[in-house]
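[SOLVED] Predicted holo structure with nicotinamide-adenine-dinucleotide

Edit: marking solved, answer below. Original request kept for reference. I posted the sequence and ligand SMILES and asked for the 3D complex as structure tokens.
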Amino acid sequence: MTQKGITVAPAEGKLGVLLVGLGAVSTTLVAGVLASKKGLAKPIGSLTQMGTIRLGKRTEHKSPFIKEFVPLAKMEDLVFGAWDVFPDNAYEAAIKAGVIEKPMLDALKEELSALKPWPAAFDKNFVCKLDGTHVKKAATKWDLAGQLMEDIERFKDQNKISRLNMIWCASTEAYLQSKPSHMSLEALEKGLKANDPNIPPSMIYAYAALKLGIPFSNGAPNLTVDTPALLELADKMNVPLSGKDFKTGQTLMKTIIAPGLRARLLGIAGWFSTNILGNRDGEVLDAPENFKTKEESKLSVLDTILQPELQPELYGKLYHKVRINYYPPRGDDKESWDNIDIFGWMGYPMQLKVNFLCRDSILAAPLVLDLVLLMDLAHRAGMKGIQEWLSFFYKSPMVAEGLYPEHNLFIQQTKLKNTLRHMMGEDPITHIGLEYYE
Ligand SMILES: NC(=O)c1ccc[n+]([C@@H]2O[C@H](COP(=O)([O-])OP(=O)(O)OC[C@H]3O[C@@H](n4cnc5c(N)ncnc54)[C@H](O)[C@@H]3O)[C@@H](O)[C@H]2O)c1
């Protein structure tokens, strides 16, 4: 398809979705897609399935569905493959995750049971709370990457797949800062062959995907593709990347509320956020080194929204605290509390309390679907490297070196929609609107 903007290859054939991790988020995604296809449920929360996009002037009243405006793969064309450190098929894993009610899972049992994970590339040093048994054995990390590539090629052939997309929906790995083996492709490949302990499984999966020219998205806050080595590989292979950490739950609310307070120039003295959750994600995050990865991601969002360097009187002394407490009885039904101490005219204090009873995986699943479809679109449009326009979906958006990430959900949304307009040769919408009064 040739447009005024960018040439986008059509979405022909099947799209293979490679899920790393077949836990709560992944099984909720797969069940939701199957249920939508059968007309048993609606894909609520998915921008690609339910979102619309305004084109042209407001007087034109032209707002097609996004899925009709850009050439996206259809849900019918998706084929799922997955890896996990436990051998449970998607039906068994979904029952254990406890997100979707059993009658619905039973209605999808045949298809869910057919999705059996391949053994994982796993390293307990990065997720100390899991004792996975369904894992690959190899002499080196280089060989592990080779085994992952074999899984992918086999899956592609068996299912007659035209295009692939990989997304990390596995546990959050222990905190890791950039190391020498992450600094160039050559160093990473050397490290893989030498079993460098600083190369976590997520980098091995990402390496395997990019090496095969497959777009990679990162739903967890792990470093993974946010490294010079893997950025170099993506550039070399002309593949898009996106990350990190799905923006759901409490952080989603934070990036909705904070821009409003900032827009009205209301000061914030403190923002205390606490959560209870009892799923496997909560258990993994109960380990301090895994929580640290998440904490960095959660803490970073307020800074670039509030810009304390520009408004030191309003936000310069803000005390921001985030806690996650593992509390098994709550399962996937996370509860979060936020106490926000704000101040207004003449410094008078006020308080805002937010108590969000959410469902983590119900909020995350549509993001996975959107990311897979939009990353596939980006790939067909010849876009490579970091896809900043997909920041809308992430807590810690990846950006080019030297840029600060944009966390404001509404700016992220404008960026995403204008990118779609640009791709399809439509004018961006600036919201100036003076022409209506000329
Ligand atoms: N649910 C949300 O709202 C949300 C939001 C942001 C980020 N995330 C992140 O998404 C990820 C998935 O969340 P979840 O609730 O599904 O967690 P989960 O614990 O239910 O599922 C993760 C799965 O990954 C598997 N796994 C761990 N290491 C693996 C490896 N090396 N290879 C293959 N599989 C591996 C685990 O066995 C588990 O089944 C987590 O990292 C979480 O922090 C979730």
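OP edit: Residues 20-25, 83-86, 97, 120-122, 127, 130, 132, 169-172, 201, 219-220, 245-246, 248-249, 279-281, 284, 360-361, 363-364 surround nicotinamide-adenine-dinucleotide (CB under 6 Å). Thanks to everyone who chimed in.
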